[in-house]
Design brief:
The complex is a heterotrimer of chains A (about 625), B (about 375) and C (about 250). Chain A has about 625 residues and is an all-alpha fold. Chain A contains 26 helices and two strands. The longest helix of chain C has 14 residues. The chains are: A mainly alpha (about 625), B mainly alpha (about 375), C alpha/beta (about 250). The interface between B and C is medium-sized, with 9 and 15 residues.
Chain lengths: ~625, ~375, ~250
């Protein structure tokens, strides 16, 4: 209102004269605010698509370059080489596990002596450095300070000597001597105590002795290792060639893009002279079409050589499988050995299969857009920022997200629904007024705080638990990483319990009391009524609660970013349930982690938006299904 | 045939033990949740409270709350005493003791000083986004509850609200980044290269350039406001609808216009309900990290938000530290050690206390409201 | 004449507010007894005391007197509540079948007592539905939802559900309040049939209904039993002036 004194009805009248009433202006104002939600949703969709859709052509081009530059060809051989290296490493590990296991006593003795000495140095090194540094600082130092430092060190030393780790495999005599040698050790001495050196020697002697009986295995491993040398050399030569080609193509792509920008600027420039200038510039910068034919020809000249190398490798490796020892005495060693034995035939078949792939590989085969989409949706690698080739495969991320959700839901569904049923059906009023606020408060905890708790408290507790001998029957225990799928799942369960609880409680509350009354009048007990009447009646509402909980879990970012361990790899399912104890990365986490670091507009940047689109679609589908259940419940 | 004596129990009723077991199982699940929650809070309180409180008066360590965040320097002096100083105090110390060497120096990022910057940043973000969301949200709710009839438009609005409410916060982060940071229009004389579109305004050289607000307080507030909007709309509409229809009918019957009715007879009675539910929305806004990671938050900042400003606009277009992002940085980017625990547990404790107060406040207000407003 | 339910000096209170005052009456076996009276007179409360369904309501309890069902005091501590309710069926004012199939509704109480044999279940369900005069209408859609039935059918389903257990006594709390006149007529015919087998107590505030289908009538007012006797006598020659005022419609 411009003027307070005019009564409102008159003001309205004045508006009316202009054919526009004040009331309807207000109405439109409010309506426009309501419409804002539609605008925001549209903006979200439009901008996600705008940034995301460019990904597929961009990725297609990257895959095309991958092919025409010949990287793909090299990768065929490289894969076998990697397998070969892995197999070598497994064999080596088996070998050393056997030896170290056999001289376990010597190993332990040496380790214990070392640990004791290290514990001492860890505790005293800082004060020792102080003394040493000050001594070197010069003569003008007051001797008082030096004396003070010396006393400090002596005190520290005495204290350290009192708290040394146990050494069950050293005799009392040896331990005593070792401690004594540390006690009388001069401040400046940098040599290890005599016993430590002696034990190390004892250990290496034992190793040598044990190695004698395994000489055959050593020779086999060495032969296996050496067999890969030729292929390895070849691959590294080819790698050099194709990388150069790829760089040339990429440079040309950039030039071409700049030229297009210039042309676009030229067409929009008003000034004719300016336009002329820009066009000329664009024409001048016309990139020489990079020569890919030459290098690829050169590369393909190596094709027979490559096949030969494979054949040679296969030939020299094949007999080695039989030469491996049947079994080893140490459990760890024989586990590794049998793993190696299992991979051996697979490796050899792969080598055979590679030959036709090498023969048939064709740099001219077109890369379709569908290939890019397929490679995104079904790719097993998410490799970015590498020097060789970037891959954007969603599977490792989706697998992580899904496995974390499974853990979270397996924990949260029974406890959330159980608590809802208990509070709604059995709890007294006093219990309700305790439980409900606590659960409501859990809902209010910011996710980043839960993530923090996960890192500093829960993860460590889990790791300590997993080293207990009495729990070693659990698959995957003891865990390798304290931040893993299971840890993240537990915290997300805590996050989704309030969602599931409150929605399920609502659903139970909405069941008409007439049902319960009828059921009890028919002679059902409270528990019978709950399970036979109330829960079935609230079923679709409870299902909706679970779905919305799932939506919350899969869309959650901070907890998984902090706690899931962030390793981009499809979990190794061969370890059964233990695969839930491996670290993983997630759809949400990858966006949060990488968006801040990628150049705007790059393929990688766009890939993150596509992940966002995927999340958006998944969560909306889940929510829509949930709301359908809710509506069904309302009837 | 019916024997009345059967009505009398002989021993326990049938299925009694099964019932008991089922009930205890459910009670066990429920109290397990309560227990786990209590343990977690207990751990944070035990480790965090000593940072904020001390044994002597005034019992609260205000320095932690009011000092700015700095790098922590840990070193020994010549006497072997260990010092822990934040960066500014450290440089004073070095100046004062020029010439005397120090030893074993290590630095811990973000771990020194206090958390004034993150606290103020979070307050700014929360206040800014709540102002925006409350204004638009309440207006939209008024339309939905007071004016709306069944129409395709209303249907679309409701669908949009439902969908917005379900979008993961990280997607809001992507949205805020691509829209508010990179695309919204600004009026400037020197448009940036990445501007999507420049519309000349014919006033000097000024153009409206769609180049975004960069990562700034403005962009963060706008993103958070979009995220919380559906929550505010739903809660406000509920409060508005809780006002009995009779009030409106009576007012309209007395000859008041629709707007007068809304202003005098609906909004005053629903205001307390709207404010209560927005308190809960505040805890969500204050706690979100993903939407502000790319739109507003910065891990380290030399000045407190109000320092070094030339105009109020500078405040809006500068990045801020925020408590949740600070906690993320402390948890993810620096290794935990005895020197960083003060910062880590202290920040989490302070944050949790704030959140607890907000949600406790909303719980109390809600129960008061329920007993007060019974139409 | 045998007594099914014997009520002696019963008083009852909801959170301290007394709603039944010193009610004493005997309900005979295999007859229909009607409770009439204005709203809030306590007739439903009295009915709900018989199977102790009032236990569900917090702070509601019998404060004095006792109820004997076939000679057993049902407020004793060691009463088997589930068994009691199985012996005393109840039909509510608003028909309330469970959101299950017609068959499952009737079989509900049988399943509770652990009966799982299909043939036995089928037989009892058919009998119950036939007794409730519903069998012919639903025999082709036993496994479709109970909510597909009309109001009157749903109420008869509730009756079938209540008698599937073969109870002794059937309590009906204004069973026709939510039904149209035609459906009401059907229920009344059913009551007439059922009284051959069951003791029926019915609460109604439709006086015509009480005259049509009850043998004895109790008139209650403000929580007190004013008059109790054969229906004909209550309606034709009431002894109490309050009863007369009520049955002649000059009440209040």
């Amino acid at each position: 209102m411009p003027n307070e004194e005019i009564p409102e009805n008159q003001a309205a009248h004045r508006f009316k004269k202009r054919g526009f009433s004040f009331e309807s202006a207000i109405r439109y104002f409010f309506a426009s605010n309501a419409g804002l939600t539609i605008v925001i949703l549209t903006l979200i969709i439009v901008f996600l698509l705008k940034e995301g859709l460019g990904f597929f052509p961009g990725y297609r081009r990257e895959l095309e370059v991958y092919r025409i530059a010949g990287l793909e060809f090299v990768d065929i051989s490289r894969k076998n080489l990697t397998d070969h290296e892995q197999l070598t490493s497994v064999l080596n590990r088996a070998y050393y596990a056997e030896i170290n296991g056999k001289c376990g006593r010597e190993l332990l003795r040496s380790q214990e002596a070392n640990a004791l000495f290290n514990a001492y140095t860890d505790q005293t090194s800082s004060t020792r450095d102080l003394v040493l540094n000050n001594t070197q600082a010069g003569e003008n130092k007051e001797s008082k300070i030096l004396a003070a430092l010396g006393t400090n060190f002596a005190k520290q030393k005495a204290k350290a000597l009192k708290s040394l780790p146990a050494t069950p495999h050293l005799s009392d005599r040896e331990r005593h001597d070792l401690i004594e040698s540390i006690r009388i050790r001069s401040l400046e001495s940098t040599e290890d105590p005599a016993l430590v050196t002696a034990l190390a020697e004892e250990f290496s002697n034992a190793q040598q002795k044990q190695a004698e009986s395994l000489i055959g295995m050593r020779a086999t491993i060495d032969a296996f290792d050496a067999a890969g040398a030729e292929l390895s050399m070849l691959v590294s030569e080819m790698t050099e060639m194709v990388t150069a080609t790829k760089e040339k193509i990429q440079d040309a792509d950039i030039l071409e893009k700049d030229r297009k920008t210039l042309l676009a600027a030229a067409s929009s420039a008003k000034d004719a002279v300016e336009r002329e200038k820009l066009t000329a510039e664009a024409l001048a910068s016309l990139a020489d079409k990079p020569d890919v034919e030459g290098p690829i020809k050169k590369l393909l000249e190596r094709r027979p050589q490559c096949s030969d190398a494979h054949r040679a490798l296969q030939k020299s490796v094949e007999p080695l499988a039989a030469q491996l020892p049947e079994s080893l005495s140490q459990p760890e060693a024989s586990r590794l050995l049998s793993a190696a034995r299992q991979t051996f035939p697979v490796f050899i078949t792969n080598l055979e299969k590679t030959l036709p792939a090498i023969r048939d590989w064709n740099d001219k085969a077109p890369v379709e857009l569908t290939a890019a989409i397929g490679s995104f949706l079904t790719g097993k690698d998410w490799v970015t920022g590498g020097e060789w080739q970037d891959f954007y495969g969603i599977l490792p991320l989706a697998a992580g997200s899904l496995m974390i959700s499974i853990v979270a839901l397996v924990l949260a569904i029974p406890s959330g629904i159980g608590a809802a049923v208990y509070v709604n059906q059995f709890a007294s009023n006093r219990e309700q007024s305790l439980i409900k606020p606590v659960i409501e408060f859990i809902q209010a905890i910011p996710s980043v705080v839960l993530g923090f708790i996960g890192i500093l408290v829960f993860g460590s507790v889990l790791r300590d638990l997993s080293t207990w001998d009495s729990l070693s029957w659990i698959p995957g225990f003891p865990i390798e990483e304290r931040l893993n799928i299971f840890t993240a799942g537990c915290l997300l369960a805590l996050m989704s319990i309030p969602t599931i609880f409150s929605l399920a409680e609502d659903a139970l509350n909405n069941v008409p009391s007439a049902y319960a009354e009828a059921s009890e009048a028919l002679g059902a007990s409270r528990v019978q009524t709950t399970f036979r009447v109330i829960i079935p009646a609230a079923f679709s509402g409870i299902l909706a609660a679970v779905l919305l909980g799932f939506g919350r879990v899969i869309g959650e970012t901070m907890v998984v970013l902090l706690v899931a361990g962030n390793r981009i790899k499809i979990p190794d399912f061969t370890s059964g349930l233990g695969s839930f104890l491996q670290p993983s990365h997630t759809l949400t986490g990858i966006i949060a982690q990488e968006l801040g670091e990628v150049p705007l507009g790059s393929v990688h940047y766009r890939a993150l938006f596509v992940v966002g689109i995927l999340l958006f679609a998944v969560v909306l589908t889940i929510n829509a299904t949930a709301h359908r259940f809710v509506n069904k419940m309302k009837r | 045939m019916f024997n009345p004596e059967n009505l009398i129990l002989k021993g326990l009723p049938k299925g009694h033990i099964k019932d008991r077991v089922v009930r205890s199982l459910m009670a066990g699940l429920t109290y397990a949740i309560v227990l786990i929650a209590a343990l977690l809070f207990g751990k944070i309180i035990v480790d965090g409270a000593p940072v904020l409180f001390k044994a002597q008066a005034p019992f609260v360590d205000f320095e932690f709350l009011t000092a700015k965040n700095e790098t922590l320097h840990v070193f020994d002096d010549a006497q072997g005493t260990r010092h822990q100083l934040p960066a500014s105090a450290y440089s004073d110390y070095i100046k004062k003791h020029e010439g005397t060497p120090i030893f074993n120096e290590t630095t811990y990022s973000y771990s020194g000083g206090g958390i004034a910057g993150p606290i103020v940043g979070t307050i700014l973000l929360t206040v800014g986004s709540m102002i925006l969301a409350l204004f638009f949200g309440v207006c939209a709710a008024i339309y939905l509850s007071e004016y709306a009839k069944q129409s395709p438009f209303i249907h679309a609005v409701r669908l949009a609200i439902l969908n917005l409410a379900g979008i993961p916060s990280i997607v809001f982060g992507l949205f805020g980044f691509s829209v508010f940071v990179l695309a919204v229009p600004v009026i400037t004389a020197t448009p940036s290269d990445r501007s999507l579109l420049c519309v000349p305004l014919f006033i000097n050289d000024y153009v409206m350039s769609f180049q975004g607000w960069n990562s700034s307080l403005m962009a963060g507030c706008a993103t958070l406001a979009c995220m919380i909007l559906p929550v505010i709309i739903t809660a406000s509409e509920e409060s508005l609808r809780a006002v009995p229809q009779g009030f409106r009918d009576a007012s309209l019957a007395l000859g008041a216009t629709r707007w007068q009715t809304i202003r005098k007879c609906v909004i005053p009675f629903s205001l307390s309900g709207i404010l209560t539910s927005s308190l809960l929305a505040i805890t969500r806004v204050a706690g979100e990290t993903a939407p502000i990671m790319f739109t507003a938050a910065v891990a380290a900042k030399d000045d407190l938000p109000w320092q070094g400003l030339k105009s109020p606009f500078d405040l809006l277009s500068s990045q801020v530290q925020a408590l949740p992002y600070h906690i993320y940085t402390l948890a993810a980017r620096i290794p935990s050690s005895e020197y960083t625990q003060r910062a880590q547990y202290g920040s989490v404790f302070v944050f949790l206390v704030i959140v607890a107060f907000l949600s406790l406040g909303s719980m109390i207000l809600r129960s008061k409201l329920r007993s007060k407003l019974k139409w | 004449m045998d007594t099914a339910i014997e009520i002696k000096n019963l008083t009852f209170a909801y959170s301290g507010k007394q709603v039944l005052h010193d009610v004493t009456l005997d309900i005979p076996v295999r007859q229909v007894t009607a409770f009439i009276g204005p709203s809030g007179c306590g007739k439903s409360t009295l009915l709900r005391c018989f199977n102790r369904i009032n236990d569900r309501i917090p702070n509601a309890k019998v404060t004095g007197g006792s109820i004997y069902v076939h000679g057993i005091d049902i407020n004793r501590r060691d009463i088997d509540l589930q068994e009691l309710r199985r012996r005393i069926g109840m039909v509510f004012q608003k028909y309330n079948p469970f959101p299950k199939s017609i068959y499952e509704n009737v079989a509900f109480s049988l399943r509770l007592s652990g009966l799982t044999k299909r043939t036995q279940l089928d037989e009892i369900v058919e009998n119950a539905l036939q007794s409730a005069a519903l069998w012919d209408e639903v025999k082709d859609r036993l496994h479709s939802s109970a909510f597909g039935l009309s109001g009157g059918q749903q109420q008869r389903l509730c009756i079938a559900r209540a008698i599937a257990n073969q109870p002794e006594i059937l309590l009906m709390d204004e069973p026709c309040a939510a039904l149209d006149p035609l459906a009401t007529l059907k229920i009344e015919e059913l009551i007439y049939e059922l009284k051959k087998q069951y003791t029926i107590v019915i609460v109604t505030h439709n006086m015509a209904q009480a005259t049509r289908c009850s043998d004895r009538t109790a008139f209650m007012y403000l929580g007190k039993l004013i008059e109790y006797g054969p229906t004909m006598q209550i309606f034709e020659t009431p002894k109490e002036p309050q009863t007369e005022a009520y049955v002649t419609g000059t009440f209040g």
